[in-house]
Amino acid sequence: MTETQSDEPTDNETEKQQYRQSRFTRPAGACEIILVRHGESQPADPDHPFPLVDGQGDPPLHQPDGVDQAERACRRLIESGEEWAAVYTTTLQRTHQTAKVLLDHLGIEPVVEPDLREVFLGDWEGGEFRKRVADRDPILLQMREQGSWEVIPGAESAVDFSARVRRGIERIADQHPDQTVAVFTHGGVIGQIMTEATGTHGFAFAGSDNCGISHIVVTEDQWVVRAWNDTGHLANRFTFDPEPLI
After folding, report:
1. Given Cys at both, which of 62, 73, 138, 159 links 211, Cβ 3.0 to 4.6 Å?
2. Which CATH architecture has domain 27-118+157-230?
3. What CA–CA distance (Å, rounded) separates 70 from 101?
4. Which among 32, 38, 62, 156 is annotated as catalytic?
């Protein structure tokens, strides 16, 4: 008589452990920061420089394109289902205007974080930077080659810019352990945050689109990049026309 094989699993098969891919989870005490670059601001007019706030150009959002981008970005944040512990803006009006739809939805006022204002462009403030970009100024080409804003006459030093951006992010993270916040800020600042988080240098992350969304998780000893320049709410394409650095 032959022995009949059983379909029942053996003890070894029953005890065998399987391991699925795990999802990222926020470490205890960490802060999740959703970074939103402001919408497109109004064009620079050499005959009418932008108004200045503490020496920095302060143009409003472009009508209607910048306002439309801002509304799309805010709707994306609203529809995400996240619980927003706070919404941060900078001292410059284009970040306040970009955050407006989200703020109105939540019924709260923004927290202003001065250290996350845009990099100071020295002699090229007030809209002059955009003219120099269009003219392909030799100093601009040198700035891009060296990956440093401080090549611009009178501009903020790399050390000072790095220090204040890090200070601003760490201050927000200290205020919001185990929470998620939205921070409406600037392209140069987002690029610097990504540089700090990844240990890169230069302008590797200088291509953030207007109203592109980035995401970092700040722990006690590390900044974890979860996303950079998500623009799915703006268009289905993966590529856009070139955006200005500032």
Report:
1. 73
2. 3-Layer(aba) Sandwich (3.40)
3. 8
4. 38
